[in-house]
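Case study B.
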Amino acid sequence: MSEVVLAGVVKRYGSVTALAGVDLTIGSGLLTAVLGPSGCGKTTLLRCLAGFERLDAGEIRIDGVPVAGNGRHLPSHRRRIAVVPQEGALFPHLSVAANVGYGLDRAARRSDRVEEVLTLVGLAGYGDRMPHQLSGGQQQRVAVARALAPRPSVVLLDEPFSALDAGLRAGLRHDVREALRADGATGVLVTHDQGEALSVADEVVVLRAGRVVQAGTPTTVYREPADEWVAGFVGEAVLLAAVAEDGAARTVLGTVPLTGAAPSGPVTVLVRPEQVRLTPGAGTVTATVLRHDFHGHDALVGLRLADGTRLTARILDGGPTAPVGAVVSVRVDGAARAFPAIGTPTPTPAQV
Ligand code: ADP
Ligand code: MG
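Model:
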């Protein structure tokens, strides 16, 4: 268990600035997800933490001890950090037990540590198998067990589930979180998948173009995103131009109460699709149903208001809905977050 602090970390590759001044505290014993689009610097961040890259500026401290920066560069093997790569990390010619025991000294290999970490990842009794006798998901479990075996204080996981299919991924990430917790390791999970970050992490760090744009709990980044870009990146967002006054905003969907320290004047209001309620038939605010995206547990219903505004409602399976082409009345349930308007709201995929 260790706290990791990054202060002003800069990393350049030639003319590309991959990390442009990262300030971040990774809480001891927690699982922190680093979430951001492809190319935003996630892998570079992990490589700097692991000691595979030298910093161009800034500092990294583990439990208060500087390990990188200001001319210092503690080599990888002395940082007590383990890395679980994306895929294909196992030695194909070694058994599961030999893979897991690879980084251990002889005494530890002979102890029951190998079986202990295999049990943690749900693979008790699999030690004698060869990697090719395992499914993709089981191979990633072995990779996690191998990372945990030498009792690192920090485990870095770089999109470790991205090659697996969706159903398998959900179960695996839950088990991996439990294994890290049971072993007391601090975890850093890199992902571009917002659902993965929100569902599994204690803390979410949103990275954009080499900078941290927000760090907080999954609930905070979803409900109180730092800006419109974060709002659209961590979930479906309906962004409405509005005018705010006294903690409420006048929008095309009526007056909506605002959360937090609400700005006044021209704003962009963030409404999540699950806040959009619809009732069959015309009403104060009338919309036409454009499409249905069925997801089993819920459906996203695309709507168009009379003035052309497009928005999305999330309807739980069995909830009130209407067929494509039908006229419905729409209202917003609950409070919304507003950002000071900086030009016109950016359309998001939720608003097609
Ligand atoms: P992510 O993991 O978020 O997709 P990366 O950390 O791999 O992003 O990359 C961040 C930026 O740095 C990208 O623009 C990428 O092209 C660049 N980059 C990464 N590694 C190198 C490298 N070894 N040489 C040059 N540019 C690199
Ligand atoms: Mg990457």
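The chain has nine helices and 21 strands. The remaining cases will be described in the next quarterly update.
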